[in-house]
# Entry
Amino acid sequence: MLTSDSTPQSRTHRATVPASRWRRRLHLLLTVALGVTPVAVALCAPVMSDDTALVTSQPTVFPERTAVPQRPCQPGDRPETGMQGRVPKEDLLSGRAAQGYTCNLRSVGRFPTTSAASFDVYQDCAYVARQLGAGGVQVLDVSDPANPRPTDTLATPAMLDPWESLRVNAKRGLLAAAGEYKPYVDIYDISGDCRRPRLLSTAPILPGKGHEGWFSPDGNTYYVSTTRTHEGAGMTPTLFPVDVSDPANPRTLSSWTFNTQTHGGATTEDGTRSYACQQDAPPKDALTVLDTTAIAERASSPQPRVLAEVTLGDNQWCQGAYRVTYDGHPYLIQYGERSGSADCSRAGDNWATFGYPRIFDLADESHPRLVSSALLESALPQHCAEVTGEGAANGLGYSVHHCAPDRLYDPTILVCSWFGAGLRVLDIRDPKHPVELAYFNPGVNGALGTAARPVVRAERGEIWFAHDISGFYALRFENDVWPFDGSDPCPEYDDYYFSHYNPMSSCPTANFDGIGEPAPAAPRYRAPTS
# Structure
């Protein structure tokens, strides 16, 4: 686990540097010497601030890596038989893998269906994006988690191929998705009866094409991002803010081009900051901090301002991020779905074999500082030759894909889908020292895995998620493993995210009134003592 005392380093290996890396260095030297900088072509190009943390092409070398520590499992669990996060070939051959692996979590309900990479919930309803070609988005009534019931299927153009873009905005009761192969945005009203979504619009978003997407917390902007660029990185718009203040008539506000493709992201409550992943191979793979005030204010031809561009070392395909705070201090949780060393080519530089979550200190938003990383044992470079090629057959192995905290203010756990390693829970009460608390990997056959974003239903003590083959699950922790004793049951500040996933909460901070400021100036809630 990397901490603030063990940050990645850059160094030169004269005897072992491949020719391609020497060429990159030569390119960098020429760039500096000639004063040439890349130019992004866009309908509305992002504006770089003077103090932007620029991407560097220097080779990253990490200190010795260690796996995130684990809490003990409960009697009766079915723990992993080998290293953390691995499904051994022996278990696949013997049939042990088909029984699944569990630690501190148990299933209380399941609905069999296929699942792709999108999942979200609203009130007692769950929305499962099924595999492409399987008929769209499955709507489930989960008011009784032991008996999830199908109530509808959404088969409009975007819902047939939403990829990772399916999102709910609870404040306005909207469900949206952007089609990857059919360039449409579909918007449904779910505020009346979430079991029977009502179509409001199916609108073309050309030149945009979907892949990922997210709402601003106020529900007035839906950001469509795409990795489907054909003309080349830096030449094609990849992020499209869409005005959905009138959801029956959505309109694209702008088209933004970055140095590479855009993946997932998130926006603060006041709309002035967005955290967007730029997806590429290292060293271009990066997390960007964007000033999106122009969108929040609905300026004419709105442009973002890039406040920071943080390279991610061994990560390939940055997936998403959340801004959280602890005692008012801001942090960024970032995760990415692939490693740049899945073939072990950089194991000698201590690159992880698979993707993993990171936490950054955001006190200086122009220079986020890495404070911790959560690698599974299966991702450690010393095991690369043993595990490479295992896990999910889509080539993503045992990488993390999507994550979700229990709340944004004073979070306690981070729940992640980890492809071939299943659903896993991290204790993040100390952002500098995460610990693995639990995992649940359904019976597997080595073909696919857990891909979609999970959801924490904190006040129900449940986690809802979808497995690619086994379908929808409702899970509960065993023997009071979580919530933690001594933790406030409510977020410390107004938390729209907590309110979304805990409807009818009695917490005074479970509301949609937060404005996204760094929280020290806000009134802090503390649970009353008995």
Notes: The first helix runs from residue 19 to 34. DSSP finds six helices and 32 strands in the chain. Residues 10 and 58 are 6 Å apart (CA to CA). The two ends are 38 Å apart (CA to CA).
